Amino acid sequence: MTQLDYLKDTFLFETSAQFLEVKEHEKGIAVLLSNTIFYPQGGGQPADQGQIIGTSGEFQVQDVRLDAEGVVWHFGSFTSGSFTANERVTLKINRERRIQHAKIHSAGHLLDCAVEKLQLTQIIPTKGFHFPEGPYVEYEGVLENGAEMLPQIQTALNEVIGQNPAVIVKELTYEEAQAQGISAPPGKSARIVNFEGFAACGCGGTHMPNAQEIGSIQLRKIKSKKGKTKISYEVSF
Ligand SMILES: [Zn+2]
């Protein structure tokens, strides 16, 4: 298993790790490390990019994935040299990309807060798409007169931003998660995230510390289809 340092600190842009091995994979060549700050694509959030630098080689990370065994695969290519077994390497992630993704992801959670504030209980958040190209949150359930509701949701969202709630991240044991109705793999802990005063949900993403650090969020569209509702948004950087 790879130790996931990005879960602890969104703003840790550089760290060191022990190089373990280079592996061939159908997706390309990958570097495996003892620990990582590279976010692996998942939970609707894109992967980090950056460099892994050793004493006699440098690897450019293009894509990152977490497998079922908890191992992080850093996909990319060597721009020079190679690494030797067990050497200490320096990890550097692209900070603009990391912050942009954290803002878009936190904005999706904040949209849920606005929906909660308006008590729109007919829609329940199920998943998010937090990519820079057309981010949205998908809800189970239909909102009647959705298009007319959009300005109200925007107003509620602006009010929540005005209150500037902090982001709270907690690690729950499997039993605690069960008791709160949050899904976690059996025997494993669950990470839950919420804005202070609002409902928590299971999330492995990177987040900003509070609402105001996200910047302004503009709701774009609301669309209900086949029992699901999608609210898309944009974050101004
Ligand atoms: Zn999330």
How do you describe this structure in short?
This protein is of the alpha+beta class and 237 residues long. It is 20% helix and 40% strand.
CATH class of the largest domain: Alpha Beta
Number of helices, counting only DSSP H or I runs of 4 residues or more: 3
Please provide the ordered H/E string of secondary-structure elements: EEEEEEEEHEEHEHEEEE
- Give the neighbour order of strands across the main sheet: 2-3-7-6-5-8
Look at the helices and sheets and give the structural class.
alpha+beta
Which fold name corresponds to the CATH topology of the largest domain? Threonyl-tRNA Synthetase, Chain A, domain 2
The portion of residues assigned to helices is 10-25%
Count of distinct strands: 15
Alpha-carbon Rg, integer: 19 Å
* Rounded mean pLDDT score: 95
Major sheet:
6 strands, antiparallel, barrel
| Alpha-carbon distance between the two ends | 35 Å
Overall geometry comes to elongated
Model regions low in confidence, pLDDT < 50 over at least 5 residues: none
How would you describe this structure to a colleague?
The protein has two domains: 3-93, Elongation Factor Tu (Ef-tu), domain 3 (Beta Barrel); 98-235, Threonyl-tRNA Synthetase, Chain A, domain 2. The mean pLDDT is 95. Helix content is 20%, strand content 40%. The strands form four sheets. Strands 2-3-7-6-5-8 form a six-stranded antiparallel beta barrel. It is of the alpha+beta class. Helix 1 (95-117) packs across helix 2. The two termini are 35 Å apart. It has helices at 95-117, 146-163, 174-179; strands at residues 3-4, 14-25, 28-33, 35-36, 50-53, 57-66, 72-81, 88-93, 124-129, 136-140, 167-172, 190-195, 201-202, 217-225, 228-235. The longest helix has 23 residues, at 95-117.
